[in-house]
Amino acid sequence: YILSQLDHYIHHDNPIKMLLHCLLLKKIKELNNNILIQQQEHEVHIFFNDVIGLEYAKKMLYQYIILKHLYPNYYTSSYILNQNISILLYGPPGTGKTLLIEGLVNEFQSIIKKPLYLIKITPSILLSKYTGEAEKKLNSYISLSIMNQPSIIFIDEIDAFCISRNQNTEGVGNISRTLLSEFLTQMSRIKKLSSNINVTIIGCTNTLNDIDSAILRRFTCKIVCPLPNEINRKRLIIKFLDNIQYNLSENDLNILINKTDQLSCSDIEHFISQTCLIPIHEEFEKNEKNLLKLP
Length: 295
Description:
It contains 13 helices and five strands. By secondary structure, it is α/β, with parallel strands linked by helices. It has helices spanning 2-6, 17-41, 55-70, 73-76, 97-112, 123-126, 133-147, 173-192, 213-218, 230-240, 250-259, 265-286, 288-292, and strands at residues 87-90, 117-121, 151-155, 199-205, 221-224. The protein starts with a helix and ends with a helix.
């Protein structure tokens, strides 16, 4: 991106252009290293076993990404098998889609014994008030992922970028259309380079129907992340009650499981945390006068 901007200010016959290019390339590598260091500092040590439920999604991610590196000969023998898979995770909010990707990175690194670079793209990072800036940022992130293979480009809330062109959404306008076109171009670019690069695009959305049909067609694998069932709700409740003193019978636990029906993992966590605060609030109300006298 920086080098492309340089062409607007320096003539092609300028003898110092090569020197400036070398200096800028050095700076780009430094920025790239800083991004990777920052990513490692915020690394979350979560594995698939720490993500309760979503067994089908774990299985598919393991087969498409980890097995491809464990047994590359099975995939490189055919053009069809050697293509980079684009994966779309969809389902209700709070089911653990983002957590699943963090677990995938650590699972990959523990099995393959080599780094897997995760590049997260969110609306706050990509979108800009300046025309054309979002498209340039997207191009830069794609180039960064190609420079650091194997890598995953994780696009969170992809429906914010790739909203269907058939919808009459106020405030979207030409910015959404040009960004959508850039997404289509970049996804086609990665598909053409499948035999030479190892980059996987993973999108995440809560509203599958809002995404443009052209983008949906380019995601070769669509994985649903549903709400937790009765067994997983029980596992979640026990996990969230870890390191907390409680006296629940099996009947009480079954009542909690039934009460949390149709709730997401995040909702169950909030429900348990608010429930555990009730005794503390009751104790505060009993001793409110004495507590107010404390210095």
